[in-house]
Amino acid sequence: MDVTEHVESVYAELRRRDPGESEFHQAAAEVLHDLEPALRKHPEYVDARIVERLCEPERQLVFRIPWTDDRGEVRVNRGFRVEFSSALGPYKGGLRFHPSVDLGTVKFLGFEQIFKNALTGMPLGGGKGGADFDPKGKSDGEIMRFCQSFMTELHRSLGEHTDVPAGDIGVGSREIGYLFGQYKRITNRHEAGTLTGKSVAWGGSHVRTEATGYGVVYFLQEMLATRGRSLEGQRVVVSGSGNVAIYAVEKASALGATVLACSDSVGYLVDEDGIDPELLKEIREVRGQRLPAYAEARPNARFVESGSVFDVPCDVALPCATQNELNREHALTLVKNEVFAVAEGANMPCTAEAIEAFREAGVLFGPGKAANAGGVATSALEMQQNASRETWTFERAEERLATIMRDVHARCRATAESYGGASHDYVFGANIAGFLRTADAMVAQGLV
Ligand code: NDP
Question: What positions does the entry give for substrate binding (predicted)?
Answer without folding.
Answer: 92, 113, 116, 167, 379
